[in-house]
Amino acid sequence: MKPSPKRSTRGVQGNKRLRHLLAAPGLPKGWIAGTLLLYGVAGLILATFPAPYWIWTLALAGILAQALALAGARALAQFRWLPANLLTLLAMVGSGAFVAALAIALNYAGSDDLDQVSATAAVWQVMQLSLVALVVAALCAVISTEVGDRLLQVFSRLQTSLILAALSVLGLGLGGLIGLAVSPTTV
User: Fold this and answer.
1) CA distance 100 to 42
2) Is the pLDDT of residue 123 over 60?
3) Per-residue pLDDT tens for 157-186?
4) What does the domain layout of the chain look like in residue ranges?
5) C-alpha torsion sign, points 143, 166, 71, 160
6) CA-wise closest residue to 55 among 183, 177, 176, 185
7) pTM, whole model, 2 decimals?
8) What's the first-to-final CA gap in the chain, in angstroms?
9) Does position 18 have pLDDT exceeding 60, yes or no?
10) Which of 180, 135, 164 is nearest to 63 (CA)?
11) Residue 10 pLDDT more than 60?
12) Which of 12, 61, 149, 163 is least enclosed, having the fewest CB within 10 Å?
């Protein structure tokens, strides 16, 4: 069956529009790559350690809350005091959920033989791993707000939120796939 000419021109127009959007002068391609990379690291952390699966739900909820809030300075400047502070609160709650998910996943690292572990070593390891979770989540939050502010120069607020959510979830998913591929543990 031969496709109708109308359908084939729509596809060509869509491809031209996508190429035009990707070639837009204000599109922060390096920041977008950084977003994918940082959320990929977070997905790698979540998938590598034998944490429970509900951790992924907590991480996704945190990421989506951050993407919806778009808590960058340029994004919040268009709101009055109360809505801006509520969006900031939503972003902080999302960041907290993301930190909690990473910290719980990282704290599944360790030894199965409890006779080999001392209390001070365990406390030190928990502190180190929690600090790693905090740093990764903080970097993800900072880059998300910066990318959101830069994308607002090119796209509308709704489009920017959707793009940011898609980038974050894609990075988390790709990192998770890599983590599952390299993880020595089997479920």
Assistant:
1) 12
2) yes
3) 888 888 889 999 999 999 989 988 887 755
4) 26-182
5) positive
6) 176
7) 0.77
8) 46
9) no
10) 164
11) no
12) 12
Nearest C-alpha neighbor of 42 from the set 160, 132, 163, 158 = 132
> Which single residue is written with the structure tokens 């990421």?
63
CA angle 183, 186, 187 (to 5 degrees): 125
Helix-helix angle 29-48:54-69, to 10 degrees: 160
Rounded Cα distance between 99 and 89, Å, is 15
Q: How far is it between the farthest Cα atoms of the chain? A: 73
Yes or no: say if 104 and 62 are a contact pair by the CB < 8 Å rule.
no
Helix axis angle for 119-151 and 157-182, nearest 10°, is 140
DSSP 154: T
What is the per-residue pLDDT for 166? 92
Q: What is the pLDDT of residues 126-149, one digit of tens each?
A: 788 888 888 888 888 888 888 888
